[in-house]
Amino acid sequence: MTTNPAAQQPRTADSHNPTGKTFFGHPRMLANLFSVEMWERFSYYGMQGIMIFYLYYSVTEGGSGLVDKTTAAGIMGAYGGTVYLLAILGGFIGDRVLGPERTLFYSCILIMAGHVSLAVLPGAAGVVAGLLLVAIGSGGLKTNASALLGTLYSREDPRRDGGFTIFYMGVNIGSLLGPFLTSFGWGLWGFHFGFLLAALGMAIGLTQYALTRKNLPESAHELSSPLNPTEKRNYSLLLVGILVVLGVLLATGLMRPENLASWVIGFIAIGAISLFTLILCDRQITDDERSRVVSFIPMWVGNAVFWALYQQQFTVMAIYSDTRLNWNILGMEFKPSMINSINPVFIIIFAPLFTLMWDKLGKRQPGTVTKFSLGIIGVGIAFLIFLTQAGNTSVNVGWIVLILFVCTIAELAISPVGTSLSTKLAPARHRVNMVALYFTSVALGTVLAGWLGKFYSMETEVPYFLSLGIGTIVVGLLLWSMNKWVTQRMRGVK
User: Which domain, by its residues, includes 40?
Assistant: First the structure.
């Protein structure tokens, strides 16, 4: 009888996959991180899908009746932008304070607590506590979940890109199911039941992660650059200073729900200008590195313009869905929040096709500037489609499906390359700061998506959609015309 020598040898320990177990050929913990991200996106988009309606629906309609439609749109835009800014803070805490694993765990707890607050606390108390806790938690989870995923693979592991692809499928599955089920809950037993479903989704993700977090590799618990005592003191004082300033603004009435979006726009602008100045004035970066940062400026502006229109699916388009769309489909009446489940369907279908297309084209595929330009022009075209239904008080749902389809195609042209571009253009000393810069662009666009809502109404929809559509297309064409200028300053980066 012969034996298999290989079977007799002990399996070599893999520091990136301590258990040795796999999930579709990948480290087993990919499944757990996939689940956490899926349930977090389920809860976040599920909550976001019905929140704008909860803010402006009257108490007799089951809502909070706290603000009007315009203010609700501004709040949701400001809220989305704040989440992106807090993602930068979450990355800082994961890198230098708690480590990515603990930051993710505590972030999940905060998110669930936020949804529970929305589910059980009525009126303003639930809104303030819920949105604040979810924003802080989502900011912490957004960056650290990706960081933990990276610890499952070595830099040379050929499975790495595939693992990230599987992971981000969880994002889209959660984004699809969340608004669908919370809309169902809202229709069944009211808004608070919808928020409860979001809380239950996050509870499932948290429970699974809590039971399996011990299986993460040792590197998941490490601090890349721990704060020294002086830094701890200085950052603590900075945090206290920020909280004091915010407290004064709120207490004096200078910051109110009606002007919240304007304040957040100002904060983002200050942050972005400060980051650009910090990097460009650093005397230790090379001329090539400085040139690449300069090339990022028009890309930053174009990206902000894109998101200012795209993110209106949670603000202006949500109001449009509520007041203009006929949601009676095959004799069944659906809630207007169902609009937020349309885009994820298209992402799930077309994202793999775009990947295959770029792979097929190889070196013949469009450059980064061209992709950005096409994405910006595409979202502008989507807004012009609204004009076909101007004045129609009962718009067929098919029109918003078409509009969001065009938005999705535009998104796939610009969004996947955004973060990648920021890392490729980053000076060696400012890799984190360049990623932060990219997020300030997305944050600004998201806030603008809410701020612009005050200019929208049925009476103003023609000039609203016409000006935004044409203006955005012009921005895309201008960026396209700068292709040579930008490419030259990228100094070999494509």
Answer: 23-213
